Amino acid sequence: MTLVAGVDCSTQSTKVVVVDESGKIVAQASAPHRVTGTGGARETDPAVWESALATALRATGRAAEVEAISIAGQQHGLVVVDGDGRPLRPSMLWNDTRSASDAAAIVETLGGDQRIADRVGSTLTPAFTVSKWAWLRRNEPEVAAAARGVRLPHDHINAVLTGQASTDRSDASGTGWWSPADEAYAGDVLGLPAVDLDPARLPPVLGPGDSAGTVTPAASERFGLRAGVVVGAGVADNASAGLALALEPGEAALSLGTSGTAFATSPTPSADPSGVVAGFASADGRYLPLACTLNATVAVDRVASWLGVKRHEVEPSGGIVCLPWLDGERTPNLPTASGSLWGLRQDSTPGAILQAAYEGAAATLLEAADVVGRWSVVDPSTPLLLVGGGARGEVWRQTVLRLSGRALQLPDNQELVAYGAAVQAHATLTSRPAGDVAKAWDGRRGAVLDAVEPDTTTRRRIKAWSDAVAGLVHGDGID
Question: What architecture does CATH give domain 246-416+442-475?
Answer without folding.
Answer: 2-Layer Sandwich (3.30)
